[in-house]
Every structure is written in structure tokens, then in C-alpha cells.
Amino acid sequence: SQLAFQPADVNGVALPNVAPFNFRFIVDTAVPTVAVNAPVTPTNDPAIAITGTVTDSILADTTVSITDETGTTTDVQPDPVTGAFSFAPNLPEGTHTLTFVATDLAGNVSLSVLVSYQLDTTPPTVVFNPPTPPLITNQDFTINGTVTDLSGVQSLTASLDGNAAVNVPFDPSSGVFPYAVATAGLAQGAH
After folding, report:
1. In this predicted model, what pLDDT tens digit does every residue of 18-31 receive, in sequence order?
2. What are the distances in angstroms from CA 31 to CA 59, 85, 166, 174?
3. Can you give the pTM of this predicted structure?
């Protein structure tokens, strides 16, 4: 669009030979959209990068605002040609929800996109309840315990004397497990 001004006096007489003032402007009523690639969750990568893409009729000077569950907001600039962006949240262990909103130069605001993920960098914890030492036995016995983790325990294995590990069943909700040790076939002595 082009807007031109030509001055005239109160009698309607235009000033002779005055060049018109030209002013160009763009009307942008298109609302940007944000697409976010949800991260794999849970993750143990504290340097996780969340990527996405903004689409808009004019990408120049578009900003993506990312707000975490504490209300902290970080702005990132998407690529002005492709709209691609990347964000590294740098948050502590736990479950996090991020809100992504794009705003273009004209002030048009996208719908919010929520992304949740869980960061777990601490290994599982195992607490044992073994029989009272010293255990000198010719009988099978059981070692009881509990295995826990922030994001849940995927598996528990045990290996006796460096032999091949075997799966140890456990209650997925409580983490409680019994591990039966069969003494038959074991050599005389300490293990």
C-alpha cells in the first residue's frame, strides 16, 4: 500500500510543484502459529534442546516466548527464513511444563503450545534388607529390598559372583522386591 499527502490551503489551492510525501506500510493481521517437537521424556540429558517452528506471513522480528512453570520467560528469535528455533531450558530435575507463544512484529499473538517433560539425572536407589550377618547357611535364603527412582524404575537385575545378570521382579508401584538366592550348586566358601 502507498499513502500520499498533497497540501492545499483553505481555499482549496494546492501548492504548485510540491512533490507528494509517500509513506509505505504493510497490513499484517495473520496470526503466527507455533509447532514444538516434544522431547523424549523422561530424559537424563540436562542440556536437552527443544526445537520447533513458527509460521507466519512475515517472519522477520517474530519472537517466541517460552515460560516455565515458575513464571520465568525466555525469548528466542526463530530463523527469519525457515521459522526454526531451538531452546535449552536449563531447569533442575523434575517434571516441567513449558508454554510457547509467538508474537510477530505487528503484535499478532499465536495460540499457546504446552510441552511437558521430565528430567531425571539421578540413578535409581536400591535399599537392601538382607538377612542378619554373618550368614552362614546351607539353605536357600531371600534378600528383600526396595528400588526407587524419580521417573520410575525400568528394570532391576542381579548378578551373583560376576555371573550373567538375571532380571529381578519388583512391584512397579512400591519398588519392593524379593531376591531368592539358591545355594544349590554354589561352591563352598564366601560369595
Report:
1. 555 666 778 888 89
2. 11, 18, 56, 48
3. 0.71
Q: CA torsion sign, 87 to 88 to 92 to 96?
A: positive
- Cα–Cα distance measured from residue 25 to residue 46, given in angstroms and rounded to the nearest whole number: 45
111-162 pLDDT tens trace: 999 999 999 888 899 999 877 777 888 888 889 999 998 778 889 999 988 8
Please report, for residues 9, 73, 165, 179, the alpha-carbon distance to residue 156 in angstroms, rounded to integers and kept in the order given. Answer: 91, 39, 10, 10
Q: Number of H helices and number of E strands within the chain?
A: 0, 14
Q: How many residues does the chain have?
A: 191
- The answer to whether the Cα torsion of 149, 150, 152, 154 is positive or negative is negative
Measured distance CA(119)–CA(66) in Å, rounded: 17
Burial class (CB in 10 A: 0-12, 13-18, 19+), 155: exposed
Q: DSSP labels for 72-135?
A: -EEEEPPPTTT-EEEE-----SEEEEEEEEEE-TT--BPPPEEEEEEE--SPPEEEEEPPPSS-
Distance CA 52, CA 15 (A): 55
Phi-psi region of 59 (alpha: psi -120 to 50; beta: other; left: phi over 0): alpha
